[in-house]
Amino acid sequence: MRYGLITSFLIKWLGTVAAVLFIGLFFPLYGVMNLFHAVLLGTVITIVGFVADRVIPTISNHIVAVFSDFLMAAVITYLGNFILPGMRVTWTFAVITGLLVAGVEIFFHAKFLPGRERG
């Protein structure tokens, strides 16, 4: 199935924000963030990942794209520690966030990226 860019972006954004918010709510031992932080980080991760998803799967494969999404989500989450006031996260928190975002990306790449359609 082919979806429009706006629909696929919104689904990716909802999944990413939900993943970041889930980690923020259920792993308070490793980091502290509020709803604003989760939405802002989820939006930044989605925009950077959406642009990368237009380039990486075409020059490589989806495994490399998911791994790059994992690294990008972990680094952006950890950098938010220094940029956003009131947010305190550890590398463990950032890696767990990256893993959950990578899980969302596996679903997104299977269902919404063109080129791997099954007939």
Automatic annotation (TrEMBL):
The keyword Transport does not apply. It comes from the Bacteria. Keywords: Membrane, Transmembrane, Transmembrane helix. It holds the Pfam family DUF2512. Signal peptide: none annotated. The chain crosses the membrane at residues 9-29, 35-52, 64-84, 90-108. This is DUF2512 family protein.
